Amino acid sequence: MENLKPLSDFFTAIENDFRISTTHIAIYMSLLQYRTQNQFVNPIQVYRHDITPIAKISSPHTYHRCIQELSDYGYLKYEPSFKKTQGSKIYFYD
Protein backbone atom coordinates (compact mmCIF):
# COMPACT_ATOMS: atom_id res chain seq x y z
CA MET A 1 0.00 0.00 0.00
CA GLU A 2 3.04 2.24 0.11
CA ASN A 3 2.52 2.73 -3.64
CA LEU A 4 -0.64 4.74 -2.91
CA LYS A 5 1.02 7.20 -0.55
CA PRO A 6 1.96 9.78 -3.25
CA LEU A 7 -1.61 9.67 -4.55
CA SER A 8 -3.11 10.04 -1.09
CA ASP A 9 -0.70 12.86 -0.22
CA PHE A 10 -1.59 14.68 -3.44
CA PHE A 11 -5.33 14.50 -2.81
CA THR A 12 -4.86 15.70 0.75
CA ALA A 13 -2.77 18.63 -0.46
CA ILE A 14 -5.18 19.73 -3.20
CA GLU A 15 -8.34 19.40 -1.12
CA ASN A 16 -8.51 23.14 -0.44
CA ASP A 17 -6.39 24.39 -3.36
CA PHE A 18 -8.80 26.17 -5.71
CA ARG A 19 -6.06 26.52 -8.37
CA ILE A 20 -6.06 22.80 -9.15
CA SER A 21 -8.41 21.68 -11.92
CA THR A 22 -9.38 18.27 -13.23
CA THR A 23 -6.74 18.67 -15.93
CA HIS A 24 -4.00 19.11 -13.30
CA ILE A 25 -5.29 15.99 -11.54
CA ALA A 26 -5.35 13.99 -14.78
CA ILE A 27 -1.76 14.95 -15.57
CA TYR A 28 -0.54 14.19 -12.04
CA MET A 29 -2.28 10.79 -12.08
CA SER A 30 -0.77 10.03 -15.49
CA LEU A 31 2.69 10.91 -14.22
CA LEU A 32 2.21 8.63 -11.21
CA GLN A 33 1.10 5.81 -13.53
CA TYR A 34 4.13 6.40 -15.74
CA ARG A 35 6.37 6.37 -12.67
CA THR A 36 4.80 3.09 -11.49
CA GLN A 37 5.49 1.50 -14.87
CA ASN A 38 9.13 2.59 -14.55
CA GLN A 39 9.85 0.99 -11.16
CA PHE A 40 9.23 4.16 -9.13
CA VAL A 41 12.37 5.95 -10.27
CA ASN A 42 12.73 9.57 -9.19
CA PRO A 43 13.08 11.61 -11.31
CA ILE A 44 11.21 10.20 -14.27
CA GLN A 45 12.11 11.27 -17.77
CA VAL A 46 8.98 11.84 -19.83
CA TYR A 47 7.90 12.99 -23.23
CA ARG A 48 4.65 14.87 -23.64
CA HIS A 49 3.43 12.40 -26.25
CA ASP A 50 3.65 9.59 -23.65
CA ILE A 51 1.63 11.41 -20.97
CA THR A 52 -1.12 13.21 -22.90
CA PRO A 53 -2.93 10.04 -24.10
CA ILE A 54 -3.03 8.67 -20.55
CA ALA A 55 -4.36 12.01 -19.23
CA LYS A 56 -6.82 12.31 -22.16
CA ILE A 57 -5.39 15.70 -23.13
CA SER A 58 -4.94 16.62 -26.78
CA SER A 59 -3.48 20.11 -26.56
CA PRO A 60 0.29 20.51 -26.06
CA HIS A 61 -0.34 24.00 -24.68
CA THR A 62 -2.67 22.66 -21.98
CA TYR A 63 -0.16 19.97 -21.00
CA HIS A 64 2.74 22.41 -20.71
CA ARG A 65 0.68 25.01 -18.86
CA CYS A 66 -0.65 22.53 -16.31
CA ILE A 67 2.64 20.75 -15.69
CA GLN A 68 4.38 24.10 -15.21
CA GLU A 69 1.65 25.18 -12.78
CA LEU A 70 1.99 21.93 -10.81
CA SER A 71 5.68 22.74 -10.51
CA ASP A 72 5.04 26.38 -9.59
CA TYR A 73 2.51 25.34 -6.93
CA GLY A 74 5.03 22.93 -5.36
CA TYR A 75 3.41 19.58 -6.17
CA LEU A 76 6.36 18.39 -8.26
CA LYS A 77 9.53 19.72 -9.81
CA TYR A 78 9.54 20.07 -13.60
CA GLU A 79 12.71 20.49 -15.62
CA PRO A 80 11.95 20.86 -19.33
CA SER A 81 14.65 19.53 -21.66
CA PHE A 82 13.85 21.52 -24.85
CA LYS A 83 15.45 18.63 -26.80
CA LYS A 84 13.50 16.22 -28.98
CA THR A 85 15.84 13.36 -28.10
CA GLN A 86 15.68 13.83 -24.33
CA GLY A 87 12.59 13.78 -22.15
CA SER A 88 11.81 16.36 -19.52
CA LYS A 89 12.60 15.45 -15.91
CA ILE A 90 9.83 15.25 -13.33
CA TYR A 91 10.80 15.01 -9.66
CA PHE A 92 8.27 13.85 -7.10
CA TYR A 93 8.52 15.12 -3.54
CA ASP A 94 8.47 12.18 -1.16
| Fraction of helical residues | 40-55%
Read across the widest sheet, the strand sequence of neighbours is 1-3-2
| Backbone CA Rg | 12 Å
General form: globular
Helix vs. strand class: alpha+beta
Strand content: 5-15%
Largest sheet, in brief, is: 3 strands, antiparallel
Low-confidence region ranges: none
Number of DSSP strand runs: 3
N-to-C SSE string, H for helix and E for strand: HHEHHEE
**Separation of termini?**
15 Å
Mean pLDDT: 89
Tally of separate helices: 4
Tell me what the structure shows.
The protein is of the alpha+beta class. Helix content is 50%, strand content 13%. The protein has four helices and three strands. Strands 1-3-2 form a three-stranded antiparallel beta sheet. A hairpin with an 8-residue loop joins strand 2 and strand 3 (88-92). The longest helix is centred in the first third of the chain and has 16 residues, at 22-37. The two termini are 15 Å apart.
